[in-house]
Task: structure prediction
Amino acid sequence: MSESANWDMLVVGGTVLTMEPGSEPIKSGAVAVADGRIAAVGPAEELLELSPSGDVLNAGNSIILPGLVNTHSHLAMTLLRGIADDIPLKEWLEQHIWPVESKYMNRETVRLGTELATAEQLLAGVTTTADMYFFGDEVSAVLAEAGMRGVVAESLIDIPTPRCATPEEMLEKQRKLLETYSSHPLITPSVAAHSPYSVSAANLVKEAELAEEYEVSMQIHLAETTWEVEKLLGEKGVSPVAYLADLGVLSERTVAAHCVHVSSEDIELLAEFEAGVSHNPVSNLKLASGVSPVPAMVAAGVKVGLGTDGAASNNTLDLLRDMQLAALLHKGIVGDPTVLPARTMLEMVTINGARVLGLENIGTLTEGREADLICVAVDGPHTAPMYDPFSHLVFAARSSDVRHVMIRGQVVVRNHELQTMDHERIEAQARELSEIVRSS
Amino acid sequence: MSESANWDMLVVGGTVLTMEPGSEPIKSGAVAVADGRIAAVGPAEELLELSPSGDVLNAGNSIILPGLVNTHSHLAMTLLRGIADDIPLKEWLEQHIWPVESKYMNRETVRLGTELATAEQLLAGVTTTADMYFFGDEVSAVLAEAGMRGVVAESLIDIPTPRCATPEEMLEKQRKLLETYSSHPLITPSVAAHSPYSVSAANLVKEAELAEEYEVSMQIHLAETTWEVEKLLGEKGVSPVAYLADLGVLSERTVAAHCVHVSSEDIELLAEFEAGVSHNPVSNLKLASGVSPVPAMVAAGVKVGLGTDGAASNNTLDLLRDMQLAALLHKGIVGDPTVLPARTMLEMVTINGARVLGLENIGTLTEGREADLICVAVDGPHTAPMYDPFSHLVFAARSSDVRHVMIRGQVVVRNHELQTMDHERIEAQARELSEIVRSS
Result:
């Protein structure tokens, strides 16, 4: 613990879960913050004595833990929330999502959709989000303005997008984003290739080289559907995971979203290459893609984080809710109530989510790390009584219980109120746009 | 529509879903209430003109729909919320749940646990709850005081309970409850037998006869685990469902909780006897019991409602959340995104839940029915924009969005605040008790 008491703020009022491996909950704990970083973690009584005059953020009866990390999303797609549900994937994409995207997604609407996603995620305790979409410069600007941490990529795909006509242009845009945000305190640039079936081998390799050159992560959809696996097996003779490995594209920089249909050989490859996996349980169920073998991946030592995917296939960005669903789902699927216990699930949305995205400076409440934390109130009827804070967060808490949210030392949500965004203006604009889309 | 405008209250401010079969959403709709019943449903503009001077409950930007119906629970077990998670069923029951129940569950703690469950459910939009536990008179008293609707049973099991030493005594207590609540406006008494494996054939038959005599429903756990199915097959030579049918116990009065392991023959029996099924997806996943074939049951015409089960195996009584999980789960399990579409899921927690419990006077917003309704706000970032109110409730809304709750014309929750209970006192007492349990 630091001996200095020149702290900017002391967060008190609950049980602290640092999420450091092996750590015990600190009852009546506190977290001291200075210069945007964690300065000390310990019993509230001791820390209050060390800093009798500093600012105090009272969490009330809360659990204080690292901010949640969403490892896969398409933020602007909040504008398409619920535009088409309960229909098959092909019809959903071809008749609803793609036509609306091509007609309405531009720099302005990407800004609006990203604002909406950011407001939603901050209020729900998500402090870091991955994004894989278009207009990454606009996305980065929105996140930075709101004080939210992001790992942002321009997407590469071998067909024209609302942003670019050719893959070459996309690669150029990617490079520009990597340069612009090379040393931003909140935005970590990244690259993204849509998938092994929609990007050529040559472009996949270029993408991996770009990630290597700039030392950033590479986001990609991988092994999401049986259709994809069969296509790759048919055309390349190998599974999607093996295909990336053969190309030299799979690495510790990879953020592989979905991995629903992976064999035990695929899982070994993911572990061997230290690739990160983003598990997206809600999207995979809603589109009937299947259930990812997460317990097997965790057992094999694969880094697994959790992702919401875009709101068009979820239909929210409620990572706490998705964690709860994942925790329940895999017990039932495997037929064993002990798989993926509560603490493992919480690691998935904190320390392991951060590792998947290549962020070593967040994910735990550790002295010297960035001060990204949330206070989850446990004073409602649905959270009384509390026997175990880990299982309580996973099985009983709701994202609406998130009382305060701090990112890099800045309180961005206080008493459930956004401090950095005008969410009513954003919601009103989103509703206006939906009326136009609906009537078109 | 009624021509009289002597209404007690007009609920306005959103889209009304009556949940009547085939009904369309009423945009800018309203619901008029008189003498605890629905007096009229229609466009707000028209109804406001008819009743210019009456009380108005403004739902803001909400969806107004029938109150939710929880078809299976053990209310007092909220006190055991999170007492033991992530462990196998046998260990969970024998080393945690049963010892604590036998030591701590008595009339006073059942009251406290039921109060906690009632506060939690009212705030989450559940207006009718089934209960299957002990001290049904105490449970009924708590629900009636809080203004909540309940279908309450004393449980029968062939071993001593915290309430009774013998099955004969249990049957006597059941009869007394049936007499006491024979014509209560909120409490519908019921009977309950624990399960086909824990109650003798003779007692199952007595229970069914009692249900017939008093014309009430009979709650029972049925086909929850493979262990139960194998036991019945081994001892009786038939499945649990067929066993009840053979005994003459299965009927339209049956409320069969779980039905996880049911064959196509079992499903035919359930349909033929018009038995009701309570699907409990969260409990079934958490205890790794499996996934109930709900799409097949619905296709076969079985009445299916949704239940939370007790908070010890859930760990909340958040029916809206459980509906969301069920909607997602079955798409993924069946491999078809069109199964159990949003409207079907909403019917499960409203009109069909009411039918499962034998309540024909609730479940839809229909003139003459009891005025049980909820207003679910759709003005947060996570619910903007809204394209379809049915899918919005199922895939995007949260129980914390429940703004107002009315039961039998009484506003029991207003602006997220309980009007009929002191939930802080209840939570404090639940916490105190948990400290005693923890240290024992």
In short: The mean pLDDT of chain A is 96. Residues 68-356 of chain A form a domain with the TIM Barrel fold (CATH 3.20.20.140).
